[in-house]
């Protein structure tokens, strides 16, 4: 399995609080992605990164920000969590943009 | 990226071959067909991909029709652990972002 970890694996937080999810890789892959998965919507891309300090928006980026200060870490931040951001969040990595992606185990986030 | 159509669900007997179809009639010449699967509560797992030739690896075989408008993922000897949602995704092979667009997939139930 690709060396991808996500932390925390589970989190419950209150509406309005900031939340940061971490994705860590040991593969030295250039590309990293954040997806969310909700019933009825499948997996949707939030943000992605194609290098250190290089990021771009996906299809559901509103309310989320990301940062990548080093190759191995990609952080997803919810500045002020809302109940609509309750979801399972998956991180993925890819050697290049045209290669297959490998996914982490996911973070289950509940916003009450 | 081209749109794909998959049956919502399929059953397969354990030990038999599972054949999962995918239609992608609007596929263009530089688009690849990718298959991923997601076992309950886990992150998606890459299975295989191809452009126009049939492909085989240790997990599965991918058969792409000559006109490339459809493909079939074959699990040669399905086991109970192959029960999962299978996603067929078409994306630009030279895509520099690597973005994957997941549809609803096919839920494969392998039965004893």
Describe this structure in words.
The complex is a heterodimer of chains A (112) and B (112). By secondary structure, chain A is an all-beta fold. Chain A has no helices and eleven strands. Chain A has strands at residues 4-7, 10-13, 19-25, 31-38, 42-51, 54-57, 64-70, 73-78, 87-94, 101-103, 107-111. In chain A, the strands form two sheets. In chain A, strands 2, 4, 5, 6, 9, 10 and 11 form a seven-stranded mixed β-sheet that branches. The mean pLDDT of chain A is 94. In chain B, the strands form two sheets. Chain B has a five-stranded mixed β-sheet, with no helix packed on it. Chain B has a four-stranded antiparallel β-sheet with strand order 2-7-6-5, with no helix packed on it. With 112 residues, chain B is an all-beta fold. At the A-B interface, strand 5, strand 9 and strand 10 of A face strand 4 of B.
Short description:
The complex is a heterodimer of chains A (112) and B (112). With 112 residues, chain A is mainly β. Chain A contains no helices and 11 strands.
- Helix-strand sequence of chain B: EEEEEEEEE
Strand content of chain A: over 45%
- Low-pLDDT sequence parts of chain B: none
Question: In one word, what is the shape of chain A?
Answer: globular
Order of helices and strands of chain A: EEEEEEEEEEE
Helix content of chain B: under 10%
Round the Cα radius of gyration of chain B to an integer and report it. 13 Å
Low-confidence stretches of chain A: none
The total beta strand count of chain B reads 9
How does the major sheet of chain A shape up? 7 strands, mixed
pLDDT averaged over residues of chain B: 92
